[in-house]
Amino acid sequence: MKLMKFSGIFLSFCLLLSCDKNTASDMNTAPIVPSGTPLTYLALGDSYTIGEAVSVNESFPYQLAARLKTANLNVQLPKIIAKTGWTTDELQVAIKEAQIKTAFDMVTLLIGVNNQYRGYPQDTYRKEFKALLQTAISFAGNNKKHVFVVSIPDWGVTPFGKNSGRDVQAIAQEIDAFNAINKEETLALGISYTDITSGSRNALTDATLVAADGLHPSGKMYAEWALKVAGAVETNFK
């Protein structure tokens, strides 16, 4: 009888240890983002972010969110703070006016083409872009790995650019100069940087990459951007 009683106690003790071990194992392997929990996404920029001249679903942020879902990253439809024609200072003003109090799981930033178009000083762009980077980091919960900067495309190769009366080569050089600034400041902070500028220049010979307005990217070009940025997002969210 005593032997049977001891065996029963020993068996119960082993089962208890087994349960505790399994529970600890489950806790240690729990994902940072619970399965099925949608990731929030904030997109900051100008016409290239709002998707001027294309449907909302063809815009870069919407296509990025859709592509990430195919990679098992459940991303919500993006909240967008962007408007055609905005410069760095106008975007910062709009962000303040939006009075957003919540953090986001990921933030994209694409800004600067209108600084170049209007002939604004490059040193002013650097200062304001650096401020926007800090704003983006703050929106990402101070997690630099969840901020993704996209380079400025070259509008000079579009029909609008070629008919603008401006030197196409000069436009390209200025775009490169502005991109050198945003790339330098982005990488200095250890933030992801995606170069879409070289691909945007394919519009010089491929009309399907330009929207009907002859200036902005088509949904096809935005899909190329989304593919490239998605790769960076997937890497940083692993």
Automatic annotation (TrEMBL):
Source species, domain of life: Bacteria
Residue ranges constituting the SGNH hydrolase-type esterase domain according to the UniProt record: 43-223
Entry EC no(s): 3.1.-.-
InterPro entries documented for this protein: SGNH_hydro, SGNH_hydro_sf
GO molecular function, one term: hydrolase activity
Hydrolase among keywords: yes
Signal peptide: 1-24
Alphabetized Pfam families for the sequence: Lipase_GDSL_2 (PF13472)
Keywords on record: Hydrolase, Signal
Protein name: SGNH/GDSL hydrolase family protein
Organism from which the protein derives: Pedobacter albus
